[in-house]
Design a protein that fits this description.
Blueprint lengths: L1 H14 L5 H10 L6 H10 L3 E4 L5 E4 L7 H14 E7 L2 E6 L4 H10 L5 E6 L3 E6 L2 H12 L2
Amino acid sequence: MKNSRQAKLLELIETENIETQKALSSRLRDLGFDSTQATISRDIKELRLVKVPDGNGTYKYAQPGAEGDTVFSNRLRNIFREGVTNVRAAQNIVVIKTLSGLAMAAAAAVDAMRLDDIVGSLAGDDTVFLVFENTEKALAFCHHITGR
């Protein structure tokens, strides 16, 4: 049930401008999915949906990386530009150092990139650990992030 509901949710946000969880819940109910606002909220979090401008002065739900998601992409870049102080690889592990309190935001930004090469991530207060499949992929990520 969960998988079919989430698949329908993704289909809805691709085909309709849905602005609120209430509207999303209502549309799903219309289609035979009986789910609470709390369930929809969990689905949104699990699917990592974001709100993006719809071009009409309002916002709609979308998947990260979806067309028109420049606001979200700019936020990710800003997190790295303003909060990351160092990025280093140690074999297949990348350590990202941030200003105090920004590690969770940096980890969320990396997670939103949906890189298949990352096996897992862990964030503390000012440090993020990323585990990659191998050393080459960790080094490539560091090069991509730092530009060197």
